[in-house]
Amino acid sequence: MDTSEKLFERACKVLPGGVNSPVRAFRAVGGKPRFIQKGLGSHITDADGVEYVDFVGSWGPMILGHSHPDILKAVSEQMVHGLSFGAPTALEVEMAERMVAMVPHIEMVRMVNSGTEAVMSALRLARGVTGRDKIIKFEGCYHGHSDSMLVKAGSGALTGGAPDSKGVPEGVAADTLTAQYNSLASVEALLEANKGQVAAVIVEPVAANMGVVPPQDGFLQGLRKLCDVSGALLIFDEVITGFRLAAGGAQEYFHVRADIVTYGKIIGGGMPVGAYAAGRELMEQVAPCGPIYQAGTLSGNPVAMAAGIAQLRLLETHPEYYGQMARGAAYLAQALRDAAQRHGVSMVVNQVGSLLCPYFTGQPVDCFAAAKTSDTEQYAAYFNGMLREGIYLAPSQYEAMFVSAAHTESDLQRVAAAADKVFAGLSNN
Ligand code: KE4
Question: What is the pLDDT of residues 100-120, one digit of tens each?
């Protein structure tokens, strides 16, 4: 097999930026991406045979580690019966039944093929049932790459958004309003300025696409109340937090009910799966039983369902994994803080459950503006130092570190030792 270097050279000729998703290209941290050849448990091995402790975990899906025997068994047993039929199978029924049993407040599910598709469909459902067009999202939250979600705060912030990407029509962006995470006042102002026009407020219950920013006490509860008063629906985008913060996700973890919940990542066990879910009344508005159209050739794909069911079954039967992962993440957060302190590096670490993120700043990070005060050069130096020590982290300051049930004590101690070495170098910068 070619080395990563050679593979990247070839990739750049036939894939934009040499990748199939921008963050993988290492542009935020410099250097060239590692082409991964295999994964087992908490470790991955690249095309040059170098092994790493993996804290990306495919950006969340590998909550039980790579190549879990039960998941591989489920996939191999299913695939010999055929890969896809474009017809109903028992597996998608079992998947939906399992999700409904594990997650509070949802009664029906529609499977799709990615988190982006789940969010795009949830927004259409909210707009369809309310008859309203506008959506409120939060600066720094990411909900996939559908047009409505690639928008940043427009001028004045109380008017429509401005496209965040070429190719997003102004008309689409105009219906997306942007508030500040952890600021109920900013949501209230938008609802007031757009009375009766807001179909939904969509939020990451833990913002894990600007690093990791937890909701302040009362924030999610406050959004629930604002939605109830204004007639907007509350959408929890749980593509990352779903089945990760708890078996029942953020609705269980924070005891806040959302009207619609979106999923991805973990429910596919590593295969391409997304879903959106809600109570029966809302979901029965979706075609073919209702007027809101949404479809997909590979939705509920039997091989992907087999992987997702196996993963959810393991999470449901091992509730102890959640405490284990949270303790592991807390250990890592403290180890990073201690290393930064020992070496005089200005850094804060946010951690919620199995998610954590170090920010190279001296101030608390509770919103996007605060996250942006992080020294991304320092982050890049930290990333590359840890990579040299065999620790594979997110190649961007604005992503999370994912602890899995497969990470061992020695994995965590390796991070602590590596951090001490790397931070020693950082403080000389
Ligand atoms: P996908 O379309 O990538 O499956 O899901 C989009 C999405 C939606 N909502 C949330 C909260 C998400 O975090 C994501 C995707 N997450 C990023 C990582 N932060 C995917 C990594 C990538 O883009 O390559």
Answer: 999 999 999 999 999 999 999
